[in-house]
Amino acid sequence: MFYWLLKAFLPAALFVAAVALSELYVRSFLTLKTGGRLESVVYGVRMEVHGKEGLEWLVFGKEMRSLKDEVLLREAVLRTGPYTILSGELVLYRTRKKAELREGVEMFGPELYLKTEEALVDFNSSTVTGDGKLYLKRSSNEIRGRGFKIEFRPFRVTIYEVESLHPSS
Predict the structure, then answer these.
(1) Averaged in consecutive runs of 10 residues, what is the pLDDT profile of the chain (169 residues)?
(2) Distance (Å, whole) CA 47 – CA 45
(3) Are strands 119-122 and 112-116 parallel, antiparallel or unpaired?
(4) Strand pairing of 40-51 and 98-109?
(5) What is the dihedral of CA 162, 167, 168, 169, to 10 degrees?
(6) What are phi and psi of 29, to 5 degrees?
(7) Where are the extended beta strands (E) located within 25-111?
(8) Gap between the Cα atoms of 165 and 169, Å rounded
(9) CB 64 within 8 Å of CB 51
(10) pLDDT of residue 13
(11) Backbone φ, ψ for residue 16 (5° rounding)
(12) I need a labelling partner for 66 at 20 to 30 A (CA). Which of 39, 47, 107, 167 fits?
């Protein structure tokens, strides 16, 4: 009886021990490589953000690094309704449901194009805000300015300081 139990459970126990040891090895390696912080790296990421109306945002990234309460996405793509936002880098704050968009931000949608360097996404209120310079093309108008707020439900764009307004040719 004891031999049968040993034969049945020993391979499983060795497998669990090997997995545990390999996990320690990988964590130690990553800790050494990131200056004492534990960091996870994942490639080809897709996340969903749900709100009052169900699925409200899709977030994609080429590479994700996770550090405690923050998630860093490289080459981020956000989608909400007919609008798409591209950013070189996205820092997601898990506990606040907010994200910083960095390294160039572009937004596309029906008759809309916006370009700026940085922005803040608030997933709770479905808004994107920014304080820096921006270029906006909507319908037949081109606008340059500083500071903006985009609300997605209902859709509305506010520009705080309009520097120039030109009809597109």
Answers:
(1) 50 41 40 56 86 87 84 94 96 90 95 95 94 91 94 92 76
(2) 7
(3) unpaired
(4) unpaired
(5) -150
(6) -60, -45
(7) 40-51, 54-67, 70-80, 83-93, 98-109
(8) 13
(9) no
(10) 43
(11) -60, -40
(12) 107
Q: How far apart are CA 155 and CA 54, in angstroms?
A: 18
Q: DSSP letter at 161? A: E
Q: What one-character-per-residue DSSP string does 100-131 give? A: EEEEEEEEEETTEEEEES-EEEETTTTEEEEE
List residues bridging with 46 in a β-sheet: 60
Q: Which residue, 69, 86, 68, is CA-closest to 77?
A: 86
Per the omega criterion (within 30 degrees of 0), is the bond before 167 cis? Answer: no
Q: How far apart are CA 135 and CA 142, in angstroms?
A: 7
- Class level of CATH domain 40-167: mainly beta
106: left (phi over 0), alpha (psi -120 to 50) or beta: beta
Residues in the chain: 169
Residue 68 has a pLDDT of 73
pTM reported for the whole predicted model? 0.74
- Is residue 44 within 8 Å of 62, Cβ to Cβ? yes
Going from N- to C-terminal start, the domains of the chain cover 1-36, 40-167
Distance CA 87, CA 30 (A): 26
